[in-house]
Each structure stands twice: as structure tokens, then as C-alpha cells.
Backbone:
């Protein structure tokens, strides 16, 4: 455990995102999405058994026997009920049929825009990132986007992104120390995680934030399910 005697930062993020899926119809996760994998799995186990799980390898409602280290591993294919192509997922989004998608980036700003493209230094690209792939379309067309980032500092949570890789329907932003919700076009602090504080969140955020309540910690049921499913601690690898 790296943040609390009873639960880790990864577990707090997983549980927070899983709870957001309680009323979701369907959810999509892409590559390099370790924490979303566990969140979707936990939501289907505990909160929303009817949730339709879509993933970038093209399977629907997989039933992994164990957590994979890669989100394109065979385990995200195992015992799936159907197949779907990535182009069909994008079509679903364009038709307004994709309910939730998990996306991430290097920077997110107070307006809910995010940057996965590059950081500029004048007319020169200072740091090149991977690029957004289909993030721009998904962020604009998916009903609710959950943005997660395992780093929370003033370089990650900024006043204004230098480049907009994607903008649109950001619903929730989850970091290791807090959750934000987009309200009236601005990210507002929704909750502070039990091992953090308002002072820490304010100090590590590059735009002003108002106080918020302390989030409910993971329950015994949530932690037991996660730890029994993942005795090797793969849920921690993004940290």
C-alpha cells in the first residue's frame, strides 16, 4: 500500500471510477487502460451486471479469469459474448449510442480539454507525446467521458492546455488524490480522497479549486473482490 494503511491510491481510483458506472448502459476502454479495466470489471461484479463492456481488441463482455498486464491480452478476449470492430465503436459514438468511454492524456485543463499531442516551446515542439488516436471523436460524441490520470500536479492539471488533442463531453476527472466533475463548462472539485486534503489538492492543481467533501473510502466488499481477483497486485502497475 502506498498511500493509506487500508487501501492504495490505485484501489481508490478504481473504486471511484467503478461507482461512476453504476447507471451506465455501455462502456469502452482502449489500450494502456489498466485502471479502467479493473473499474469496469468491478462495476460488473458489484454494481451493474447488465453493463455492456466494449474494448479495443474488439470483444464484448469478456469474462477474464485473471487480470492481464496488457489490455490487449487474451484475458480481455476470454469468453466474450460477441465481437465488434473499432470502426463500429466509432460509429456507435457518432450515433450517440456510446454511453461511457475512458480516456487519458498528459494534461487536462480547467475546461475539461486534454492534451496528448505535444508541448510547444515557441515555434518548436519541446516534448512529443503519442497523439490522441480516436480521442477527439470519442470525447466529442460519447455521452460521458471519464478521464483518468495517475499523476496530479500543476504540470498535469493546468489552467489551459497548450494543445487541444480532444475536447467535449468530459464528465469526471479522477486523479490519485481527488475527483472533479465538469459543471457549467468548468472542472469543479467533486471530492477529496481520504488520505489527501483540500490544501494538497489546491497546491497541486494549476487552477483555482473550491473545497469539497471527503470521498467515501472503498468498502470491504470492493477491496475483497479486487484483491481476490488480483492477488499479484497488477492493479498497481500504472503507479
Residues:
Amino acid at each position: 500500500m502506498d498511500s493509506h494503511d487500508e487501501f492504495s491510491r490505485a484501489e481508490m481510483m478504481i473504486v471511484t471510477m467503478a461507482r461512476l458506472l453504476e447507471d451506465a448502459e455501455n462502456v469502452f476502454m482502449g489500450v494502456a487502460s489498466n485502471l479502467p479495466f479493473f473499474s469496469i470489471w468491478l462495476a460488473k461484479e458489484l454494481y451493474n451486471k447488465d453493463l455492456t463492456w466494449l474494448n479495443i481488441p474488439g470483444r464484448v463482455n469478456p469474462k477474464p479469469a485473471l487480470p492481464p498486464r496488457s489490455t490487449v491480452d487474451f484475458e480481455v478476449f476470454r469468453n466474450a459474448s460477441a465481437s465488434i470492430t473499432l470502426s463500429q465503436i466509432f460509429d456507435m459514438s457518432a450515433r450517440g449510442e456510446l454511453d461511457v468511454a475512458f480516456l487519458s492524456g498528459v494534461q487536462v485543463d480547467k475546461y475539461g480539454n486534454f492534451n496528448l499531442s505535444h508541448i510547444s516551446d515557441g515555434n518548436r515542439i519541446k516534448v512529443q507525446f503519442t497523439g490522441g488516436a480516436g480521442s477527439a471523436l470519442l470525447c466529442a460524441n460519447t455521452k460521458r467521458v471519464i478521464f483518468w490520470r495517475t499523476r496530479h500536479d500543476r504540470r498535469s492539471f493546468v489552467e489551459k492546455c497548450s494543445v487541444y488533442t480532444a475536447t467535449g463531453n468530459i464528465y469526471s476527472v479522477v486523479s490519485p488524490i481527488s475527483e472533479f466533475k465538469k459543471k457549467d463548462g468548468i472542472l469543479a472539485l467533486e471530492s477529496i480522497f481520504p488520505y489527501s486534503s483540500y490544501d494538497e489538492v489546491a497546491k497541486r492543481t494549476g487552477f483555482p479549486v473550491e473545497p469539497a467533501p471527503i470521498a467515501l473510502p472503498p468498502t470491504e466488499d470492493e477491496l475483497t473482490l479486487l484483491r481476490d481477483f488480483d492477488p499479484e497486485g497488477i492493479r498497481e502497475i500504472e503507479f
